[in-house]
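Anyone up for a design puzzle?
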């Protein structure tokens, strides 16, 4: 990991990039004792060590959605006073901007029955999933991969909506 930060910080020092991020599929969704687990505190500490205090690590991309609630619900990151916290809370404390990904699980959930997500009666299943993910507190934006023009138009319809309290309500049920 240190060699990667050395290369990235060199790019920052040269002015080739302003900042960079970390993307992980499993690292923040698994239990803290899983071999694939990442500690955001340790990651940021490594970047700081390489950069002498100031570092360019600013972003965190992680899967967020109804199918992947772990970064919202699992308290797998070290917290204050020996406690633990969720990856979203840890990211906020560490100054990382969270970018959600894969709200539709690569299209697998686009046609799912999501009628249990009340409060969004005019939205398709895909739109409901995107709206849920973009409404999670602590998420700056959500990346949605789209192949067809009609899906782009559908996704843009969600972008025009305000974030909803739907995610907070559903999260209470997931916990």
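Challenge accepted. My sequence:
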């Amino acid at each position: 990991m240190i060699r990667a930060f050395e290369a990235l910080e060199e790019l920052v020092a040269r002015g080739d990039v302003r900042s960079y991020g970390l993307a992980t599929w499993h690292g923040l969704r698994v239990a803290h004792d899983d071999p694939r687990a990442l500690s955001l505190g340790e990651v940021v500490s490594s970047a700081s060590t390489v950069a002498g205090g100031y570092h360019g690590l600013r972003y965190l991309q992680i899967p967020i959605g109804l199918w992947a609630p772990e970064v919202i619900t699992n308290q797998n990151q070290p917290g204050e006073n020996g406690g633990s916290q969720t990856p979203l809370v840890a990211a906020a404390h560490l100054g990382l901007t969270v970018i959600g990904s894969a709200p539709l699980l690569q299209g697998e959930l686009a046609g799912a029955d999501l009628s249990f997500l009340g409060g969004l009666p005019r939205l398709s299943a895909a739109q409901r999933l995107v709206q849920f993910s973009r409404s999670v507190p602590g998420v700056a934006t959500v990346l949605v991969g789209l192949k067809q023009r009609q899906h782009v138009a559908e996704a843009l319809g969600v972008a025009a909506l305000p974030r909803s309290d739907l995610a907070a309500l559903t999260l209470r049920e997931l916990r």
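A detail worth pointing out: Residues 2-14 form the longest helix (13 residues).
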